Structure of Methylthioribulose-1-phosphate dehydratase:
Amino acid sequence: MSQRPYSIAAFREAARTLAATGHRLYQQGWSPATSSNYSIRLNAGHAAITCSGKDKGLLEETDIMVVDLQGQPVGDGKPSAETLLHTQLYRRFDKVGAVLHTHSHASTVLTMHWPADHLTLEGYELLKALEGITTHDTRVTLPVFDNTQDIAELSARVDQAMDQGLANHAYLIRGHGLYTWAADMATCYRQLEALETLLAIELDRRRLG
């Protein structure tokens, strides 16, 4: 029998972490019902990712599967429809170890009701939760990509934006949600929590005029 291309122990740990992360995000209201997808790099060529159509509030370790970095499943299971947005990040950045995608109320409303192709966060103390930022006196611009069912095409657009120096910490998909990534899941969750909080603040500020 051929050897597996990834460590079983690493996969089991990733599955536990992803299931627990899904519960946390669901409880925050950032991953309602079967929305959202999450992943963890296993090695240079593989990642553990949530299976398609799983309720994130009930996510179990058996709801996690393995894909290669071309987005193809390794073994049984149907990966998230947006797998290529995860693998694009793993292919582009060797140091990315985790990716989180959420579907929050704030990110949906902001990107549907303000037509700009970017959203700027500036002057917030909470920006220091993002990797590499050490002062509130900074500006983070999140690109906003129009939504599409052609995930390969969207992945290519993200890659092109990164070629231009955009999307350094995260990006938004219009009416759809937020993507962020980091070296490990703890850092990725911290970034996502900060960004989701700031998006909610930005939504309130716009409502208040």
Remarks:
- The first strand starts at residue 37 and ends at 43.
- The CA atoms of residues 52 and 80 lie 4 Å apart.
